[in-house]
Amino acid sequence: MKKVLTVILCLSLVLVLSVSCSKKAEPTDNSGKAAEKTVEKAKEIKVALIVSSTIDDKGWCQAMHDGITQAMNELPKGKISDYKAVENTQPADTMTAIRTYVNLGYNIIIVHGSQYRAQVEEASKEFPDVMFAFGTTTDIIGPNVFSYMPQSEETGYLSGIIAGMTTKANHVGLVGPIDGGDSARYNRGYVLGVQSVNPSCKIDVTHIGDFNDTVKSGEFAQNLIQGGCDVLTGSSQQALGALRAVADYPDKEIWWVGQDLAQIALDEGYKCIAASSYNYKAVLIGLVDKFEKGKLGGEIISMNFNNGGFEWGWNDSNPKATAEVKKAVESKMAEFVKAADLVANYKDVDYTKL
Amino acid sequence: MELMINTLTLTARFTVALLIASMGEMFNQKSGIFNLGCEGIMSMGAFLGMLVPFLYGGAGTVPGYINAAGLIAGALCGALMGLLFGVVVISFRAPQGIAGIGLQMFGVGLAGTFFRSYIGGTQSITGINAKAIPVLSEIPVLGPILFTHNPVVYIAYLMVPVAWYIIFKTPWGLKIRAAGTYPKAADSLGINVNKIRYESLAVGGAMAGFAGAFLTLCQAKMFNAGIISGRGFIAVALVYFGQWHPVKIFLGALLFTFAQSLQTQIQIFVPQFGYYEFLTMLPYILVIAVLAFNRKSNKFGPAALGKPFNREQRV
User: Which of A4, A12, A16, A20 to mutate to test the interface with B (most CBs of B within 10 A)?
Assistant: First the structure.
């Protein structure tokens, strides 16, 4: 009986693996021979991306993935000979992923998330000839690490202007992941943006304590909506759950301002008035250029409207994307394009005093 | 007052996935097997719960029976995974803890792989929406709390007395308890312990799969690879919390979810508190505190929990 069960189990496993792999059979030509190729062709550029979520999360990780693929299309064909993404990576698994890809000849490793800082510090010392890009931080990590930091207080500010002008309940909300990195800047910018156009507006700021838990994000958004908020926003990939919760009220005037342009195209995107997005394409093109010049790191790459680090899009089918709102947002955006660091006071925002 | 009504209404809705999964885990544990793979089963249930309506109508509205088919598909898959777990821990007598962790990883990984292959990326569905019951929902205070949910919420609450009745009032429930308390004695009375354990794992797995499908169809209305986010493990903890009794597990699930809702409310209404990190821990601290201070908990646990049964060594 046991033998029969063993055989059945083995067959089931084989069946499951074959079914799951049958739809997308990816070419495997770059696995075994990759290291060999690197030796033969030293300047070949191969990019690896390490992310905590998935490259289709309609948020933080997808923005970087999209930026890389756009850069590959814009750069001369073959400039980046290969690109691979490692998804759902825990910090504990990061070194394994980095070592694997370095051994396979990947020479630009993008480690996308502030939770990986210790691993990037370790890896950059272990592989001094490899270029690492790490975000978000404003610290210089090492001579072969480019730190990038989106100045998301700018996009948050614009989102806040929309929320402050749109709310009828004079009550808006925010579903954040943790109070750190890029999200902390976006969220504080949002508060300042709301206050700039509607000083009496009540702003509820919440943090779910997780970057990926869309269910919890949805629960928080429901709490905010039940509490009277009629315009919400959220940062990082968890925010998708909050957007879905907003779409649970199709007949009510409850709206969303997005932090990724992909959110407008979603089925629930009709609730989205506008959205910002990171322009990682420019970052990657810059990295490739520096790599070719032999510069592997030791700099901080700021991303803002002034240097084309952000994109902005309106959902023109949304009734709240009015000319008045657009004018206010675009006027402020023009100021951001002219000069950086205009929202430097985002650090002064104190949630406990809201 | 309105705030409290809102908090309780959301608590009643959000507790459902945990309640169903922990009720299923109770069946497993009552028969002597603890299944740490609940998380993996919930992941597969969540995936299938979404896949069925998505294949039928994409993100658009689909007939109610299609959504029901999604829930059933999740439950059936859960039952199969429960049986698979049974093969490993009952027939092969593998250590239950290790096998459970393996099942958890298998389920989460498999759901993510299938999702990527058959759907492609984060995708939402219309799902099953909440609907107020006429007249009853207008009762002051209790109306909004109890009668403004989607139909699956009521089914979940009905599972509590049903589970209690099955466990404590039916011959099958008696056999389950016997298999989990003193399997040698049960065996000597002619009860097929392994068969009972397989049946319990199938029921427990079905409920975990159903709970996962509830998350995608009724709550999040979307699927992504990490959608369960530890809720399977919380379901296992709630069984200990509720001392293997359906009503106490129900109260535990309610308390846990209430603490979740409460921490949101504190963040909103008492921003001066500041430490959201502490607030997000609140529900978990609550569970640990109750387990730590409830020393009698062990007395209620099935005596043979976690111990494989070998008929050849019954004497």
Answer: A20
Reported ipTM: 0.85
Tell me, yes or no, if B148 comes closer than 8 A to chain A by beta carbon.
no
- The domains of chain B, with CATH numbers, are 2-123+150-302 (1.10.3470)
- From chain B, the residues in CB contact with A205 under 8 A are 267, 271
Is B305 an interface residue toward A (CB < 8 Å)? no
A42-150+280-303 with A153-277+311-353: one CATH topology? yes
Set of chain A residues whose Cβ sits within 8 Å of the Cβ of B267: 204-207
Q: pLDDT tens-digit profile of B194-221?
A: 999 999 999 999 999 999 999 999 999 9
Instruction: Give domain A42-150+280-303's CATH superfamily.
Output: Response regulator (3.40.50.2300)
Note the pTM of the prediction, 2 decimals. Answer: 0.83
Please give the structure tokens belonging to residue A269: 């995107």
* Chain A residues whose beta carbon lies within 8 Å of the beta carbon of residue B149: none
Domain extents in chain A = 42-150+280-303, 153-277+311-353
Topology of domain A153-277+311-353, per CATH? Rossmann fold (3.40.50)
Chain A residues with beta carbon closer than 8 angstroms to that of B308: none
Q: Is the CB of residue A214 less than 8 Å away from at least one CB of chain B?
A: yes
Question: What is the tens place of the pLDDT at every residue in A251-280?
Answer: 999 999 999 888 998 889 999 999 999 999
Does A177 reach chain B within 8 Å, measured CB to CB? no
Q: Does A5 touch chain B (CB under 8 A)?
A: yes
